[in-house]
Design brief:
Elements (H helix, E strand, L loop, with lengths): L1 E2 L6 E7 L2 E7 L5 E5 L23 E4 L6 E3 L5 H13 L4 E4 L5 E4 L21 E12 L9 E3 L4 E10 L2 E6 L3 E3 L3 E5 L2 E3 L2 E4 L5
């Protein structure tokens, strides 16, 4: 069966012996594709039956075609990351739209730049606008310490109606946002319960 946030609808399995290929189609947005194989559905080389697949071996990320304006499904943290990577890759101005009062939770570090970030480094050639529409970005407080995002030199970022909480970096600057960029504009943005060596929420 298929699940995940990318909207996959069809899986085709080909192969024989001990090697099989699963081709998945129907994805409508960036996100995860999870193909679940139930216990006993296939026979192994030693004639034993397979165990049920787990999230450690059956989930992949899918990156939809990059466009200048991308809308990300609620809770799809991987989709948000992929949209930022798209914005970095495309020339000109880009927009990412998040759902009304949405929620994105982060428990792992995407990259270690300047101490670690939940999201890919903002390094666009033009400008990136993220319309949050009241959405929250949250770090799981029991997980390793990292901030939400870093804006690289030369980049421009505008955040509208977006909230961030839980960012924590005791070895670097900016618990929620650290900007070396050309421009950082915040409009109706809440930065709550973030901490860092310097800068608290913003540096």
């Amino acid at each position: 069966s298929l699940s995940g946030t990318a909207g996959a609808t069809t899986a085709e399995v080909t192969g024989s012996g001990t090697t099989y290929t699963v081709a998945v189609s129907g994805m409508t947005t960036s996100g995860t594709v999870i193909a679940t194989i139930p216990s006993g559905a296939a026979e192994l080389a030693d004639s034993s039956l397979t165990a049920e697949s787990t999230s450690g071996d059956n989930s992949v990320g899918y990156l939809a075609a990059c466009t200048t304006s991308m809308t990300i499904a609620n809770t799809d943290s991987d989709g948000l990351k992929n949209a930022i990577r798209c914005a970095n890759a495309l020339p000109g101005d880009q927009t990412i739209n998040l759902p009304t009062n949405g929620s994105y939770v982060f428990s792992t570090i995407d990259n270690g730049v300047n101490g670690g970030n939940a999201l890919p480094v903002i390094e666009n050639n033009g400008s990136l606008t993220i319309n949050g529409n009241g959405t929250w970005l949250r770090r799981v407080v029991s997980q390793p310490r990292f901030r939400m995002l870093y804006v690289a030199a030369g980049a421009s970022l505008t955040l509208n109606d977006l909230n961030m909480s839980g960012g924590d970096l005791n070895t670097s600057f900016g618990g929620a946002i650290y900007s070396d960029g050309d421009s950082l504009t915040l409009s109706h943005v809440q930065l709550n319960d973030n901490q860092a060596l310097l800068g608290g929420a913003l540096y």
